[in-house]
Amino acid sequence: MADYPFFFTWAAQKHAKPVEMTGGEGAWFFTKDDGKWLDLGALSYQVNAGHGNKRIVEAIKRQADELCLSAPSSIFPAKVELANRLLAMAPPGFSKVFFTLGGAEANENAIKIARIVTGRHKLVSRYRSYHGASMGALTLTGDWRRVPLEPGIPGVVHVQDCYCDRCPFGHTLQTCKRECASNIDNTMKLEGPNTVAAVILEPVPGANGVLVPPAEYWPMVRKACDAEGALLIADEVLTGFGRTGKGFAVEHWGVVPDMITVAKGLGAGYATIGAVLVHERIAKHFDEKILACGLTYYAHPLACAAALETLNVYRDEKMFEHSAAMGPVLRRELEAIAARVGVRAMVRSLGLLGALEFEAPMAMWATLGTELAQRKLSLHVDGKRGTAIFAPPLCITEQELVTGMRSFGDAAVAAFGAKS
Ligand SMILES: Cc1ncc(COP(=O)(O)O)c(C=O)c1O
């Protein structure tokens, strides 16, 4: 690879795989070598509104002409309207939005708020989770990305996951006692009364394999948090904005968290923006007390305008509804692939977020990468975890989805062999 004068993220520099994107349209992006790729991963799970969306680009240009400089205390129409629209999307009782630059510091700010409001310091998160690459968010993260940076921030306790295909408590679906949820309650009790400030969870752990929880999971965790006086934070950075077929994934279980963190689909990749949505019962704490949080560039006008227009696009093009409608199509195609390949494959999905977990040796994963590149399919494959994760732009058509999934199936058969 050519030597570039900047670092590539999450890569040994000599093995980074840069992509020279020149544009895109809908579920497709284009590369300088005349490549046309079908994006089954929404790049880094953020391009929910699709590639090359002219409405969002135009909204950014209009905002640039009007007001283009950030100032933490500034008010302008796009900021006010965006906050109102986010609160209208949130469960009942949410009253304030705290804008951030992205997902990691949405989580940083949520845990700071939880510590300030509760006066407690401990935080509970899961092993199979990713919450971002800043120091606090990385400490919350339970997966391999946390380890090189340890010790992180003090007070973080990790618990086992809702990983039904490989239940950490040794159960099958028939014998399941929902220990993944009661374990959170037990952990809080063992950590000591009045010590846990918050439990932070992805509604469906995304990058760690789309671990859809049992129906009782979120209501049980909510009950446990209430009993212990801990706050419940839903990290909807990946699952928010229609990814699972609902505005927010917590809606699947009718649970009202205390805070919801968002990013990715909020600006759909067109601008750097995230947010913490805060329930009134937490927000009111700061009516008279100082909110000791904030960076210079928060709520930049260009980002607010981009996010506001992104929400308009979702609404006008009924993208959340489309994601819900495409969920069964994605599921059917995932199951068809699992039935075709010559290795054991597990299927998990909710809306337009799906995973295949293959029991295949590492060498086969390299072949899968080559096969996908030949077919110009872009998605998240991870040989270490054994997963391929599907999260296409929400505007993908049924035909594009079916064609893409069948093409993935061909690549998987080429890599892992066919069922005999
Ligand atoms: C669930 C979740 N939380 C937080 C983050 C971090 O977001 P960002 O990269 O915008 O900081 C991610 C990113 O992948 C994520 O998937």
Major sheet size, sense and barrel closure: 7 strands, mixed
CATH class of the largest domain: Alpha Beta
Number of helices, counting only DSSP H or I runs of 4 residues or more:
12
Please give the CATH architecture of the largest domain. Answer: 3-Layer(aba) Sandwich
Mean pLDDT, rounded to whole units? Answer: 97
Instruction: Give the CA-based shape.
Output: globular
Radius of gyration: 21 Å
Bound ligands, named by name, code or SMILES? pyridoxal-5'-phosphate
Distance between the termini: 40 Å
Strand content: 15-25%
- Order of helices and strands, N to C? EEEHHHEHEHEHEHEEEHHHEEHEEEH
Strands, count:
15
Low-confidence stretches: none
Label the structural class: alpha/beta
Report on the architecture of this protein.
- The chain has two domains: 139 residues, Alpha-Beta Complex (Aspartate Aminotransferase, domain 1), CATH 3.90.1150; 261 residues, Type I PLP-dependent aspartate aminotransferase-like (Major domain) (Aspartate Aminotransferase, domain 2, 3-Layer(aba) Sandwich).
- 36% of the residues lie in helices and 17% in strands.
- The protein contains twelve helices and 15 strands.
- It has a seven-stranded mixed beta sheet, sandwiched between helices. A four-stranded mixed beta sheet has the order 1-2-3-13.
- Strand 1 and strand 2 form a beta hairpin.
- The protein starts with 20 loop residues before the first strand and ends with a helix.
- The structure holds pyridoxal-5'-phosphate.
- The site of pyridoxal-5'-phosphate has 15 residues, from helix 4.
Quick tags:
alpha/beta; Aspartate Aminotransferase, domain 1; Aspartate Aminotransferase, domain 2; 2 domains; 4-stranded mixed beta sheet; 12 helices; globular; binds pyridoxal-5'-phosphate
